[in-house]
Each structure stands twice: as structure tokens, then as C-alpha cells.
Write a structure and sequence with these properties.
Helices cover about 35% and strands about 20% of the residues. The chain is of the alpha/beta class. It has a domain of about 180 residues: P-loop containing nucleotide triphosphate hydrolases (Rossmann fold, 3-Layer(aba) Sandwich), CATH 3.40.50. Strands 6-7-8-3-9-10 form a six-stranded mixed β-sheet, with helices on both faces. It has a four-stranded antiparallel β-sheet with strand order 2-1-4-5, with helices on one face. The longest helix has 17 residues. The radius of gyration is 20 Å and the shape is globular. It starts with about 25 loop residues before the first strand and ends in a 5-residue tail after the last helix. The N terminus is likely disordered. The chain binds adenosine-5'-triphosphate. The site of adenosine-5'-triphosphate has 10 residues, from helix 1. It comes from Rubripirellula reticaptiva. Its EC number is 3.6.3.-. This is Putative phospholipid import ATP-binding protein MlaF.
Length: about 290
């Protein structure tokens, strides 16, 4: 097998002529999801290119988290399919799905660190679990490198998660997500619960990470500052229950700079944080 070569953006170069082929890492094909009740997602089709940073926005309950879980095979679509790097998730074996999951780094909202482990062991955990042949000096080098990348000093390694601030824990979570050098990074509400300065530190780290690695990133967020700053594409979902049968659930799919001037007034209201007709809807009991 030939070893693929990569251009400076990390895209695989084609065998002919060496030009970059920005093939899509993810293909979502006519995906619908329900959990026995009403549809949560209906007929979602979108492609996510390698190296792209895409922000998924939309009000609470519109299906952002379900969409993110569907992308990584944690939720199976009721209809439609998701392809990860050309492999349809529903068709792969359990072992292949584990291999795919190893290529995905998760940065959870609450960092999801193991309380009983030191910071060092938390960051090292995926590496030790997934690569039994890795030597302890290698583990040490990689843990220290990723902690330094997220701006944490070496003396945090012996501490426990409870001894760190929320912002520091999020940075440890990012270091841990990076340790297996993922192809896809999924950030779930990366700035929720942080003050504006620490939120911006996290935003800068998301940008830094993309500069350093040719990673594809999906950022699920309510934070418009984050969506605008870190992404090169924003997709806005709308709650299925408030749409007519034939309406698209994706109200916006485009560049963050176009959000303010979106044709759909619901997008403009969302990004400006305006209640609009929602107040009168609530007064009329249309809110659930
Ligand atoms: N496992 C499940 N079983 C049943 N219903 C579910 C399940 N997971 C999600 N839902 C429902 O799907 C809808 C969308 O939920 P989801 O968590 O994706 O919303 P969200 O846009 O991420 O909201 P938030 O911004 O508040 O996190 C909600 O009505 C939720 O109750």
C-alpha cells in the first residue's frame, strides 16, 4: 500500500499531480432520528470537509446533541446514514466502530475527567488504553507536550481534577482528547460555565489546535462569540416540533460573517439574542 502524502493543510494529496483533494470526512445522508416519540431530527443531509471547523447552533432542544451523537455512531439514525471517512457507520463491525471511535476526540461540557486519577493519568488514559506497546517515557513526552499546548504548567500533573478551576479542567479535557491525535474533534458546549476571559482562552485553544493539527472539528455551542470566532462554517438547527412538515430543519448553513444578514429572521433573532415572537407564543401556550 502506498503511504499517502499530505499538503501543508493536512489534506491528502492525490497521486496524480499532487493537488489537494479535500474529500469529506463526514457525510450525513438524509438522516432522521426519533426515540419512539416525535422526530428529533428529520431529513438532515450535510457534508463536513476534512479540516473544516463547523459550529452547530440552535436553541435548546433543537437536536444539536443528538446530531453530534449521530455523527459519531452513539445514536443510530432511524432513517438515513452517516459515513465516516467513507465507511457507513451502520454497516461496520463492532471492531471497526471501535477503530473509528479511536479517531475521534471528545471534549465534553464538564470535561468528564476521572476524579480519582491525577491529571497526568487522566491525560495518559486513552493512550495507555489504546496502545499497550507505548512506553512510559513516550507517554510522559506526549502528556507533557499536550498539557503545554493547552497552556498548563507541568506542576498540574500530580493534582486531581477537583483541585483545578473549571477552565483548567476544560483544558485538561482538550489535552486528553488530543493524545490519540484524532482526525475528528467534537467539542460539546466548550465554553459553558466559563467567564468571558476563560471562554476566550478556550476559543483561542480551539483555533490553535486547528492551526497545529489537520483536524476536523464539530463545535456544539450556544455561545455565538465562540461560533463566530472558531468556525469557518455555521449550521443552525430549528426544533422539529415548531416546523411544518416540509420545512427544512437547517435554517442556516454558511459562513459566520453571513449570520447577521441571514435571510431567515429566526436566524437573525437567534444570533442577536432577541425573543421576537417567542414571547407571544409562550403567552399563547405554544411553548413546551
Ligand atoms: N435518548 C433519548 N431519548 C428520548 N429523547 C431524547 C433522547 N435524547 C434526546 N432526546 C430528545 O431530543 C430532543 C433534542 O435533544 P438534544 O439534547 O439534542 O437538544 P440540544 O439542541 O442539544 O439541547 P441543549 O442545547 O439544551 O443541550 C429533546 O427533546 C430531547 O428530550
Amino acid at each position: 500500500m502506498n503511504t499517502p502524502s499530505y499538503d501543508e493543510d493536512g489534506f491528502e494529496e492525490s497521486a496524480v499531480g499532487g493537488t489537494a483533494v479535500a474529500e469529506n470526512l463526514l457525510e450525513v445522508r438524509e438522516v432522521s432520528v426519533q426515540f419512539g416519540g416525535p422526530w428529533v431530527l428529520r431529513d438532515i443531509t450535510l457534508s463536513i470537509a476534512r479540516g473544516q471547523t463547523i459550529a452547530i447552533i440552535g436553541e435548546s432542544g433543537c437536536g444539536k446533541t443528538v446530531f453530534m451523537k449521530t455523527l459519531v455512531g452513539l445514536v443510530s439514525p432511524t432513517m438515513g446514514a452517516v459515513d465516516f471517512d467513507g465507511q457507513t457507520l451502520a454497516n461496520v463491525s463492532r471492531e471497526e466502530l471501535s477503530n473509528i471511535r479511536r479517531r475521534i476526540g471528545f471534549v465534553f461540557q464538564n470535561a468528564a475527567l476521572f476524579d480519582s486519577m491525577s491529571i497526568f493519568d487522566n491525560v495518559a488514559f486513552p493512550l495507555r488504553q489504546n496502545d499497550p506497546s507505548v512506553t512510559e517515557p513516550d507517554v510522559r513526552d506526549r502528556v507533557m507536550m499536550h498539557l503545554a499546548e493547552v497552556g498548563l504548567p507541568s506542576d498540574v500533573t500530580r493534582k486531581r481534577p477537583a483541585e483545578l478551576s473549571g477552565g483548567m479542567r476544560k483544558r485538561v479535557g482538550l489535552a486528553r482528547a488530543l493524545i490519540l491525535r484524532p482526525d475528528l474533534l467534537v467539542y460539546d458546549e466548550p465554553t459553558t460555565g466559563l467567564d468571558p476571559i476563560m471562554s476566550d482562552v478556550i476559543n483561542e485553544l480551539i483555533l490553535d489546535t486547528r492551526r497545529r493539527y489537520p483536524v476536523t472539528s464539530v463545535v456544539v455551542t450556544h455561545d455565538m462569540h465562540t461560533a463566530r470566532k472558531v468556525s469557518d462554517r455555521v449550521v443552525m438547527f430549528y426544533p422539529r416540533r415548531r416546523l411544518n412538515e416540509d420545512d427544512s430543519q437547517i435554517l442556516f448553513d454558511g459562513s459566520p460573517s453571513d449570520l447577521e444578514h441571514a435571510v431567515d429572521h429566526r436566524v437573525r433573532q437567534f444570533v442577536r439574542g432577541e425573543a421576537g415572537e417567542r414571547l407571544s407564543e409562550m403567552a399563547r401556550g405554544l411553548e413546551d
